[in-house]
Amino acid sequence: xxDGDSIAGYGLTGRSRVGEVGTWTDTVGPDGSRGxxxxxxxxxxxxxxxxxxxxxxxxxxxxxxxxxxxxxxPVTDLVAARQEVWLLTGVPAAPTLAELMDGRPGGPSPDAGxxxxxxxxxxxxxxxxxxxxxxxxxxxxxxxxVGEDGTALLAERGLALALRGEPASPDRxxxxxxxxxxxxxxxxxxxxxxxxxLFDRAASTATTHGLGSARDYLLNGRDLLPAGFITRExxxxxxxxxxxxxxxxxxxxxxxxxxxxxxxxxxxGEVVTLLYTPGAGDQPFQGTPASGAAGYGAxxxxxxxxxxxxxxxxxxxxxxxxxxxxxxxLRFGPGVPVDTTAAQIWRAGREQQQxxxxxxxxxxxxPARRRRRGGVLWSAVVLALIVAAGLFLWFQRGAPLSVTAVxxxxxxxxGCDITVNVVGVITTNGAAGQVTYEWLPxxxxxxxxxxxxxxxxxxxxxxxxxxxxxxGTRKLTARLRVLSPLTPGTRLDDKASFTYKC
Length: 502
Fold this sequence. Notes:
The protein is an alpha+beta fold. The chain contains 13 helices and 18 strands.
C-alpha cells in the first residue's frame, strides 16, 4: 500500500469492505473531507487490455457527471501505484444498501417509503446510463451506496464488465433491478402488504416493459406508501444509527504482490493518474509513472478526446448521451440543490406522462436527430430546473419548522472521572426556524438550549458533554426533550442509558 497508510495524499482508514471488483477503504482527504478508495483486484487487472478498459469506463462516468448525472459515485481520480490501481471517490462507499438491509438490533428500520425512493433513483440513473449506450453490469444491493442524506448512488459502474472484457448489457441491469425490488419488498416492505405488492409489480413491469415503465409505476403508486416518506426521515435515521454504531472493520487491504521494495514507504512521485484533464489538450498527468503503468502515458484511450456526441470506446458519450432523457440529475428528498419536475410529480401527483421515457431511450437507442436538438433541449431543461427551484424555495418559505422525531445515542463509559459525549439527533421537516430543547441528565440540573435550523436541514445534531466522576458503579440516563416547535399536547423526547464504573 503506498505510503503504508495513504494513496495520492488521501489517508486510508481502518474501515474497509470487499466489493465486486476489489476492496473499498474509507479515506480522509488533506482538508478532512471523507471519501472512498477502491483497490482493484490485481489479478483481474492482469488480463490483456483490462486496465485500458477500466480507464475508458471511468472516463465515461466522469462525462456523465459533467452532463448532469448525479446518481453515480463521484469519481475523484483513477491512479496507478506500482502494480496497484486505485479508484478514488468523493464520498465513502458505505453504508451499502446490503448493509442497511441486514440491519442492526435496536436501531430504526427503513420503511417501504425508503425502499421506493431508492428504487426510483436507481431506475432513473440506469435509464440515463443506458441512453448513453452503457450499463452497470454488476447491480445488486452491495453496489448501491446510500449517502448520509438518503440518496442512492451506484458504485463500481461498468468496472466488472471492463475487467472481464464484456459488452454493455442493459437487459442484465433490468433483471438485477427487478431482483433488488423484490428483495426490498420482502425486507423493508414486509409489514406493508400493499407496498410489497407495489414493488413486486414494479419488478415484473421492469422485465416486461422496461425501467421507464417500472419507475412510472412506482410514481403512480405513491399513495400506497407511508405518509411523509419523501422526506426520507426513516432512511436518514437508519443511516445515522448505522454510522454511530460500532462497525466491525477489516484491516486496511494489503499491498499488491511485488510492492514493497521500498519497505512500504512509497512516495507521491510513484503515484500517477490514469485520467486525462479535459480542456488541456488531453495531456496525461505529468508525474513519475509507476512501473505498473508503464507505456500508458503515451496517448489517451481511444475516443477520449472526441467531441461531445461522438462514439467512444463503449458507446455514445458526452452531453448527447444525455439526449432527450436529460434527467440524469433526478433526485428525491433533502440535500438536493433544486427540486426537479419528477420530484414535484412524486409529491403532488400530477400526470406521469410528463416524465415518461420513450421506449427507444429505454433500449439505449439514440435517434440521429437528437444530437442536432441537444443544445435547444438542454437549454429548455436548464430553464425548467431554474423555475422548479424558484417554486421549491417559495414553498419552503411558507412551511413552518416542525419536529418529527428525536433520537439519543451514548457511547460506552470507560474509566474514572470522564466526560461522556451524548449525541442527539432532532429530525425536522426541513424548514428553517429555531428549535428549543433541554438535556435532562439523571441527578443533574436540566440544560436548556435554543439553536437555529437552516432550510433543507432535516437532521439537526446536538450534544451534551457530561462530566462524571467518583468511585463506584452507577447506571446513568441522558434524556433529550424538545420544547418547541411542538403542537399543543405533543411530547417529543428520547433517552439513552449507560453504566459508569470506577
